[in-house]
Every structure is written in structure tokens, then in C-alpha cells.
Batch of 4 targets.
Target 1
Amino acid sequence: MRLSIHTYGTRGDVQPYLALARRLTAAGHRVTFATAARFEQFVTASGIAFAPLPDDMLDLIDTPAARAMLSGRGSLSWIVRLVREVRPMMRRMLDAQWAAASSGADAIVYHPKASGGAHIAERLGIPAFVALPLPGLTPTRAFPSPMLPFADLGPLNAVSHRLFLGYAGAIFRGPVHRWRQDVLGLPPAGGDHSIRGVPLPRLYPYSEHVVPRPSDWDENSQVTGYWFLEEPGDWRPDPMLQAFLNRGPAPVYVGFGSIPSLDPTATTSMVVKALAMAGQRGLLAVGWGGLAPEAAIQHVHVLDAAPHDRLFPHVSAVVHHGGAGTTAAALRAGKPIVVCPSFGDQPFWGRRVAALGAGPAPLTRKSMTPSTLAEAIGIAANDPAMRDRAATLGAAIRSEDGVARAVDFIERRVSEHGRAS
């Protein structure tokens, strides 16, 4: 079977899909992986065929307007301007997706950010699967859309999903419809993530131990378990990191992923002060500009990068932005988590961590001060009950094989499609 996997975004949006690609390849299938050009070496190192998608939308993330929006401080006019800048980029993205799949594919698996997936599958007459590590594509009465800042809207929960999905799809509906007509020769789409009005199968690569599967979902929506990318087995702490680990108790990891900060120096100063106030040592991951230490600090060690699955067993707690990937890695390691969310799905994961008793209540960037962060770090690093709950949850997640379940589901659905056609 020939599969085309399309995803887009930061490294956290690429890793789970590369884990899926590796397992499909190991099962004897041929996979072409389409994502931003900057990740070519990351993908091809696994022996996976690569198809580049344009980098330009990712380059926008490092502009002042995007940094302000991602930090929750952007004005409406900035957001409108960003949308206007993205629209012409969308056509280049769609064209690149078409080039990646049109040479031959029996099925497509795609992240919603790679929005051409369903349309290309419709044109080629092949099955498609939309995959998202967030329960945001299937309406449910159990909770509101995870992209909204509400824990519960009661009878409006299901409506909130439909409203958000409709709004998100409407932003780029015009460019997508023109592309369908000009390139694919298709009429306007009947809906997002559907083919001729029939919803696509939805794959949710997270654990039911973290977000229980809603009872009102049908079999078209599958919670598989996390898709963890297993890093090469030869990673070890470098001598300086190992020496820091040996000098004292397990440190607290602090990192804000690929989300740039408006003022990395000020953020770093606040984190360093909070660690000192909490009496904790820290590992600071500089990421993509979220943190920027100016000088050596005795109780802090600075990291450029390290695989989370190898690093997190060495720490006492994890402080991060609430991205789905880092949340998954910390939960898998059985470590308490302090989530400091800014936007998107980050508040949702912060609420889930707190509801599971695996971390304190999330701290928004606006409410985060040295004292509030120190208090949260102290709870996460020292509360025995919280540490026990996090460890139990980690063991449950480690017992799952979400990638295997996803591969099995894809193989069955593609086989059924072949028998029906």
C-alpha cells in the first residue's frame, strides 16, 4: 500500500506523524511524507521518502505580529493582517500537497493544517484519514471545543464544536474552493474533512487515560493512544549536563517549546527567580527563542535540545507551554506538570493535567509571576500524592501502543474501501 502523510507546523506537529510513517514502513507499506522543507533531514534520517511543503507560513511565526498573537497580546488588526498574509501562501501549500500525492497514493493521512488532504483524496478516489492529537474534530456533549477557553458550556458543548469548526474552515474557504476548481477540477467542497458530504475517519493520537473517549462518538472517531517517536537509543546526557544532574536532587525542566516569546530575557529572569524561591534546581530549554539566559546561574543548567523521552526521567517535574507533544512526553514519563498556556489548545491540556491530579492549576502568561510560578513548581515537585498520580498515569500510558492501533485501523479501512470500489 502506498500512503501519503501530510502534516505542517512545528516539530511537535511532525514527530507523531513520523512515528506513524515509520511503523507503516515497517509493516511493508510505502510512505511519502510531506511537511515543511526545514524538516527534510529529520524525516529522511528515518529512511522515509520526503516531499517538501513551503516554509513561508512557519517563517511568519517569528515576526513581531505573530509573536504578539502567540503570546496572547496581539491586537485584532494584527490577527487580520496575518490572515491576509497567509492566504496567498495557502495556494502554494495546496499545490505542494498535490505534487506530493498525485504521483501515486492509495490513501492519505493528514493533519488539519495540511488542509488539502481531503480534497486530494476526493480527486484521486482514495480514502483519507484526518489525524489530530486533540479531540477537536468530532462534536460531543462531553466538553466544549478544546480550542475555546471554557471548561464546560453545558448544553452548548456540542454547538461550540460546530461553531468553531465552521469558523476555522471559513477563513480559507475561498482560496481552497478556487484551488479545487483550478487544479483539481472539482466543485466547491461540501464540508471540511469530508468527501462529498461524508465525514472522513478521524484519528486521535492521544491516550484515553488522559481524555476519555466521549460516549456520543461513533466508530468513525478513533482514540488510538499516543504516537510516540522513539529516538535513537544512543543518547546520553553530555558531560556538563551529567555533572549538573550529579551535583544535587533531580531538577525541574522548564521549556516553552517552539513558541517564541516577546521578551525571552524577562521570561528567563522570572523562571530563574521562581526556581530559587521554590528551592529547586532547573533545566532550561532555550527552544525557539522562548528563553534566553544572559549568564551562567549556579542552580540552572541551559539546554539547547534533548529528546524528552530520555531527558524527562532525570527531572522531578516539567514546566512548559502546554503543547500536546510536550504534555504527552511528560505524562508518559510520569512527571507532575505545570502548564503555562498562551493560546490554542494549550489551556485545554492545562485543564486536563489539573483535572487528572497530575499538576496544579495552569498559570496563564498574564497571571505568571515569580511568586505564582514558584508556588506551582513547589507543589509539582514536592506533593507526594500528585507525584503518585502522575507516576500511575505514566505507567498506564506506557502500556499502550497507539501507533499499532492506528496502523491496524488504517489498514482495515483501506481494505474495506478497496472491496467496496
Target 2
Amino acid sequence: MNIAIVGTGYVGLVTGVCFAEFGLHVTAVDTNEERIARLANGEALIYEPQLGEMLRRNLRQGRIQFTADTARAVRESLVIFIAVGTPSKDDGSADLRYVEEVARTVAGNLNGYKVIVTKSTVPVGTGRRIQRIVHEEIRAGSQGVFDVASNPEFLREGSAIEDFLRPNRVVIGADSPQAVAILQDLYRPLYLIEVPFVITTIEAAELIKYASNSFLATKVTFMNEMANLCEALGVDVHVVARGMGLDHRIGPKFLHPGPGYGGSCFPKDTSALVTIARAHGCPTRLVETVVDVNEQQRLRMVQKIVGALGASSDPGSLMGITIGMLGLAFKPNTDDVRQSPAVVIISELQRLGADVQAFDPAAMEQARRVMPKVDYREDAYSAVEGADALVLATEWNQFRNLDLERIKGLMRRPILVDLRNVYDPERVRLLGFTYCGVGR
């Protein structure tokens, strides 16, 4: 079976490579010809474990190809996945211009039956919108037979390959039994490992994605609020989280306090859900609060750093202060700095006058584009040289067992602000550090 993936960003590239791994013939499309050339040369372009190796293997075996010719890819494929960006507008709603462009291109190149599938995260009603666009754009006399389906992705950055090859579930939303059967056939290897399939309407599939991410964001935010309360009460948040997580109705995942959620999904999807709900007269007050609390959590982390330094929050109060920052990506095992708490925190620290020197194992190239005034260092130890405080913002494995005695000797003041609660407070304090965690 030939399939086309339109969009070679995070979702599109992972989806295309993994479908090729399933033995399908994949044509991945992007308008950026330089990007296409580099991908065709085996450069993964994003940091994701296993992705580069899998990409090069499927290129060698001829199961995936890259092109800027969307029209040809549509004509040669039975299934066309739309995996383009849906960035947030100023009002929080999803910008669907790229999705609509793809729909028009598909309509102009129908040469037989096609299944048009939204893989991008799109608002409820987008599938119907695509149907209308294609019907309106079909040229007179063309073989305009098609179905539209929704097949949302549930890929965690840093674990995306594993999530695609061994998912918790596959959601397929479609009206047509033929479209459902074709999509089920694409995922046939997953039946061998008994992956559950949710077959539903287009609208339900679209909402499942937003509802899932908003619920996970709510768990993260709730635990951050509990961490703040733990600090006020003198309680260890990790004990509270364990006591909660042992309840099977709650579960232990996403109960880790920190500087708030980030990345390309949770911030965008929670804002979009709020906008969708308001438009339909059903305000989601809980999700609205989650969005607001998450923003405040990042600023609370800045206050934590300022407090540890014995400074104030006035502009210029950190003049002459150097902060060593470990971690720039919003989570480990990715180079994604979109909506990263570290970016917000660094920006605020710089606004207060601090100099920031930072290290991240994968995200420094991306970070330079949005924070050019940071002093980027070659490793964790050079990032803390002469620093008045060390801030651990992303819990990369290589940051979990640092030589703290060496770090203490490199710093001007031994202050560790551990925003991910990686280190044991008592051990760190015994080494002579001032330690500040989250909810401890």
C-alpha cells in the first residue's frame, strides 16, 4: 500500500518512518526543499531516540522517499495523512491554514478513491471542514471519490518511536466502513500485540486527543499546586504523590512536581480546547484554570531562584549575578524548547539583570534561536563555573549523578535550585550546598 504523509515535522516524520517500518511504501512531503534534501540524505533533523537509525534503514530499503511535490504524492497514494502544523492564534484557537491548503491540493489531484486522514491535532469539526473544502474544490470531471478520517497521534517527545510501535491505543474516526478497514490494515502489525482500537466518529476522535492532553496537563498542574501547599505545610510532596499514586483510580504517572508543563502539545491543546468550549457555550473552567496556574508556576520558580539568592524581584536586582542553568528542552530526550519552562525562567532572570550560562545535551542549537544572549557552555561543569546558583531545569539522565563536590568548587556560591527534585536534599546540604527543591 502506498501512503503519503504531508508535513515532515515531528509528528509527520515519526509517523512516516514508523509506517515504513511496518513495510508500507511512504512518500513524505514538505514544501521546504532543503529539509527534503537533508531527510532524503538520512538526516533526522530532530532529536528523537532511534529515529535517525530507523530513517536511514528504511531509506536504504526503499520504503520511504521524500519530495516537495505534493500533487504527485497524492496521485500515487491511496491514503494521505495531513501532518502539518496547527499553531495557536492569538486567541488560543488552532490556525488551520496549512491543513486547508493540503485539502485543496488533494482535491485538485484526485485520480481515484482516496482516504484523507488528519494526523495533526485539529479542533472538533475540522474533518467536516475538510470534506466541504474537497467537495468545493474538486474539478469538474475528476474522479472525486474520497473519505475523510481522523487518526490522532499520541506521541510523547523522547519516546515517540516506542509510542507508535507499541501504543496504548489507536483511535480511528470515520463514517465510512471502507476507510476504517483501510486504516486498520495500515496498523495490522499492532494486532499481533493486541493493541486496543477505538473506532468512532470523526468528531469523537478529534475530541479524544484534546481531552487526553488536557487531562494529563491537569494532573501535572494539580500536583504542582499540591507541591506549593507542601512547602507551606512542611510536608514532602513525594510522600504525598506516592500515597496518591498507589490508588489505582489515580495512578502514579504525571504526579511529579516541577516548573510546569511545556512543549508543543499541552500548552497549545489546552488553549485550543478552552477556545472550542467557549465557542460552543460550554466553558471548561477547570482547563482554563490549568492554563493560568501553569503560567504562574513558571514565575513561581523564578521567585524560588531569586529567594535562594537572597535578592528581590525588582528589575536590576540580579545585576552581577551569574546563573548556571542545566537543561533547556522542556523534557529529557528531545531538543524541543517550545514553551519550555527553562526558556521562560531564563528570560525572567535576564530581565532582572542576571547573566545566564547554560548547557543542554541536545537543545542548545534550538535554544540559540530564541535566546541569543545566553552564554552556552560545552558541558554541565563549565556551565556552573563562577555561578552564584545552579538551576536544574530538565532532568536529563546525565544530570542525575553529577560530581557535586567538583561543582561546589567551581561555583562562586554553592546554591542548588533543583526544579525537578532530582537530588536528595539532605545529601546535598551535607555537602555544604543551600538546597531548594519543589514541594520539599
Target 3
Amino acid sequence: MASKVPSNGPGRRELTIDEYYTGVRNGEVATLARALTLIESGNSSHRELAEQLLTKLLPDTGKAIRVGITGAPGVGKSTFIEALGLHLIRSGRRVAVLAVDPSSGISGGSILGDKTRMPELSAEPNAYIRPSPSAGTLGGVARRTRESLLCCEAAGYDIVLVETVGVGQSETMVADMTDCFLALMQPGAGDELQGIKRGLLELVDVIAVNKADGEGRADAEQAAHQYDVALKSISRQSSHGESPVVLTCSALQREGVEVVWQAIEQHYQQQQNNGTLMKCRGQQNLRWLWGLVEQQIQQAIHEHANVLKIRDALEKEVLAGAIPPETAARQILIALGFNNREHDET
């Protein structure tokens, strides 16, 4: 008998895993939305059911182009994604956008709403926009973004765009779950270029300087030149051997957006042609595996009965300065059954 999935809200009939699978595979938006809610749930029983669903969907994934998009707040990510999404839909593609919003510190829910920031794209039947709260996850990538990406692929979306909260710790995380990493930049790169992290330049596959219109066009072109020089100065090549592409565009005027997409698609085709696409995705899966192991170990430690007995007292002592954090950490390990001193001696 197929497992029943708890309903996602009052008055909703519980769905079986088979019903979820069929609905997702048929591209039913309502079923996809409920499937992603199930995947994002922190409830342990939901997690088991979500794993069953993902296992069943896995053979139907992997056919989409996965694109990560990052950039500082105000650079125009939502405007760019809407312009890009509309361009792709008009060329016969189906587009899913996983837009990770900042989380409310009180409720944990999304503060922003990408459907309101992308009104034209959200009205398209071949587009699906899913705003997800980052819930405090390092770097602004939602805890289950990878699983959501796979679910969208199984639903028949052949382009999946992952938008992050902004430039920060998220670069490595989003680059490690996508095939092409795009960074949107502002015109007038002088000051921004001084503060930009070398790590970002080492991760990007495409840089697009946005707002290249009107009086800002010359500044955008100058910024693009500076980024190009910066990339050459660190002899930057991607893991696939080709140098990153630097372009300009105007998302607001919808100029140059198709050229940016051509660069993304060319990068993807090169990966397919030289055999690195599946290799890179395989390595991403391995890092995902061990990342999940670390997350689950940390959660298990916090929930362990022996740790719960001593946690509050140890935290108070650390806060009061009565014991160093290293001593408290050692006591937690001992409570878990690890004699840390024995490990140090061996």
C-alpha cells in the first residue's frame, strides 16, 4: 500500500507518494507546490516521505540547465530573472525559479515575495516561481534548494534558475548546485571592484554588468572592462578550462539579456561536449552527501538526551566565563560517548 502524505493544510486530502509522483511528472503546479512544501518541511515524518518521493523522481531528473544567479541587493536580480525568463519562454522553454528570500527572524517565513517582484513572469503558464525562506541557512540558500531543484526538473522544467539573497557566503553554495554561475554587477565598478572577494571571481562562469542603458551605459562598459582585467590578473579559468565571460546588459530595457543567455548556454554545451557536466554533477552530489551528514550529525548532537541534560548548565558557564568553550565541548563529547583525551593521545 502506498504511503500517505500528511495534508499540507486544513481541508486537503492526504496524497499518496504515487499521487505526488504522477502529479509532479504531469507538471501539475498545485501538486508540485505541495511536493516542495513537503520537501521543505522540518518534520521528521515528512522528511522520510520526501525521501521516498525524491527516490522515485530521481530517474526523471538531470535534464535541465541549472543556473545560479547572485548579486548584491539593488543590482536588479529580480528584474533580470523576469526578463531572462520571458525570453526563454518565448523561445519554447519551461522555466522554474527558486528564489531564496531573507527569512523573518520571528516567524521564519519569507520577507519578500518574488511573485510580486516578477509579475509578468509569474503570469506565464510555462513559468514556476517558488520563493523559499532561507531560514537562517548560511549564505541564503534554502536548506532544501537542491531537492526542490530536482523536483522541478522532474516536473518538466528544462531551465532552473536559483536566485540567492545576495553576495556573501552563498557563492560557493549556489555554484556547487548549478551548472553555470552568473554574477550580476553594478556599473561604476571602481569602488565595488576594490571590495569584491577574490573567491567570487574564482567561482563565476559569467559576469553581467546590469543597468547598461542611458547615462549608465558608459559606466557599465567601463566596469565590464575592469572585471575582465581582474579575471585575467588572477589567470582565472573555470574548472572546465574556459575563461569566464564578461558582458553588459539592461534588464529594465531588456537589452543584452539574450546575449547573456547565449553565454550561459554555450558554457553548458561545452560541459556536455567535453564530458565534464556529469563529472561535475557527480562531485556536487558527493559534497552534498557529506554536507547532509554533517547537518544531521549536528542535529543529532543537539537532540541527544545526554547533551540535553548538561547543555543549559554548560552554556551558562561559558557565558559567565567560568569555563572555556573547549572544556565545554569536551564535556559534550564525553556525554556522547567519546573520550576526547584518548583520541588526542592516539
Target 4
Amino acid sequence: MIYNEAMTYLFGLERFGWQLGLERMQALMADLGNPHRSLRAVHVAGTNGKGSVCAMIASALSCSGARTGLYTSPHLLKAEERIRIDGAEIAEPAFVALIDELRPLFDKHQCTFFEALTAMAFVHFQRQRVDAAVIEVGLGGRLDATNILQPLLTVITQIDFDHTDHLGRTLEEIAAEKAGIIKPGTPCVAGPLPPAASRVIYAKGGIIPARRNCRVSSLMMTPIGSYFTLTASGKTLDLTLPLAGPHQVANACVAAQACLSLQMDPTAVIRGLREVQWPGRFQRLCDSPLTILDVGHNLSGFRRFRWMIDHFYPEKRVNLVLGVLKDKDYTAMVRWLPKRLQRVFAVSPASSRALPADQLAALISAAPAQSCGSVAEAVAGARSQTGANEMICILGSHFLAAEALSATKRLTK
């Protein structure tokens, strides 16, 4: 199987959509000899922040000397990004070989795209003899394909409204789905939670509250990261975090508490957070004109992004390239666009779930908005119309990010 053929097959599994439930995954793993049972895993759920927290924990584990697997979703540029060991994504030949080997079982069990990738990650990590694996939940928790794990530690980062068609219409219902990853006798580190969600999570028992246990002092935030002192579990850590925003400081508290709960050396935690890489999160793509990419893809993500622009760039007017998915609360999301909008270039992300660009443009009243035929057209249009004291922001779905990154690279050569 060649690369293009393998990718066509793998992405063809998206036709099955999201099918929550563990039966197919359990049957598939049984056919493979249950490779997941050998994994010493940290299992991470949450509405927002779970990818960042996974990246931080994995970075710290690698810095501690542990050979560390990291499984996350979605990807920015290519599917191989989802499966990493010590920061390096799975090699293309190994990725293709896994698809080729496991394809008969994927077909036998009619696996979804996410189930197939999850199985590939578990098999790869077992064969590569990782010492630890950090596994991000795909959707929810209780019925997510990753929830066949028996982890060393679980983490719930934050809970808000998202995927309400799958997870429930109230915070209590959503929290109950996330809490499904909590196992009897296994500790769970919890981030800051709204009261309705907190009651559900803490009723499970064994919860380590990061918000209560962690104290932040001497905080200095910049557009490219934060510097602060964190006191947690009797340890004092002077941290440099190359991810910007107060939400990333909160994520770092959760990640650090998780690492300390695993009895990790504080020096490894300090180094791991300093060296963590997680693209697409308020990422500065270029300076002339100033261009920021952020994969905030739901209401809380848009709120955070607006705070960041208003706080870090209060003098800049914003030309915005925007694309969202139709299964998000997009009518509420557009009410949280940055305050100093100059123009909006609406696009349809490369997904069957994309909200059409013309519909998105019609929703925006805060500034002139135009529908663009492609992300490349939108980025080029934004660059041509961005003058002094203005900036470009690229905001929305992960599906938008890959095209935006490629377009920006071409235009800045």
C-alpha cells in the first residue's frame, strides 16, 4: 500500500462518522491481543485544554527520561501528528504499514476513523515499548474509543458546552460523560470546573483538585508565553511556558499537578513545560504583517481568543480570516469576535461539517464581511488589505489551520 492509497482508505472511514460505544473497540483489541493493557497511561478528557495538557504532561515525562507516547486529535497538517513518541511523529512508512496490516480488522469490525487511529496508536506504543503513554479522549469520555484503558491517572481539564448533540444539553450531562473515564481506585486530577459540573465529577471520589492545590504567583504574561511561580503538592516551581494566555497558565497547573501526582521530579516538570510545543494555539506565523493563528473552535475558544487580542494587542485593528463548523454554536461564537474588527474574510473549512462561507459572512454585523472561495484567497485578501496598525488573525476549526499555514508560507517566501 502506498501513502496516498493508505490515506484514502483511512480517511474513507470517516463515512462512519462518530459512533460512540466501546463494543467495536473491545472486539478489535481482543483480535490484536489487547495491546492497550500493557500501557502505563495517563488518560485526559475535557472540553478545552486537553490537547495542551496532554502535550505538557508528555513533554515532562520525556524530560524525566521516560520513553513517552502521545496520542492526540485532531491533527493540523497530517494524520501522523496524532501518534508521537518523545515528540517525534510516527514515520510515514510505519504509519502506512500499520494501516495495511490492520485494514482487514478495521473492515471486519467496521471501525470509524477515530477507532482505527486509536488502535494504531495502541499497537504502535506497545511495539515501541513506551514507558508511558498520554492519551487524549476524542469525544466525551464514557463511550469514547480510548476508554478501554485502565490508566495510572486520569485528568479532566475543563468542562463547558460543546458537542451537545452527543454529550447532552446541560453541564451536568456533559460532565457525566467526561467523568466516565474515572476508574475506581485510580486518582483523577481535575481542573477548574463550573459548580454544576464539579458536583458530578467530585461525586466520583478520588479527585485531586488542581485549582485548590495550586497557587500561582509572580505571573507575567506576554503574547508568546508566560512566566510564573507555581506552588503545588509542597513543591515550588519557577516556570517558563511558551504558550500564551491565562487559560494556558491554568492548563499548566493541571499538567503540573498531574506530573507531581505521578511522583515526577520537579526539575523534569520545569523543563517539560519550558520545552513543550503545541502549534495552532495563538501561534505567531509572521511579523509583517503580524499574523496570529488560533484553533479556537467553540464558544469558550472564541471568548479566550477575544481576551487575548484585547489584552496583548489593544492598539491593533483586526483583519480576520474565519471558518467554523456547522455543528458548533456559531451564532453565539460570532458575537465574541475581537472588538476592533476591520474586515472579515469568511471561508468554508475543508470538512463535510463546514458552515458555508456565505452563511458565515451573512451572520457578521460587527464589520464588513466577504465570502471567499478558498482559505488561500482569504489569506491573500487579508494580507493585501492589512495596513499599519493592523494585524491578521486566522481563527476557527483545525480544518482551517493546515490550509492557512500553507497559504501563509507561500505568501511569505
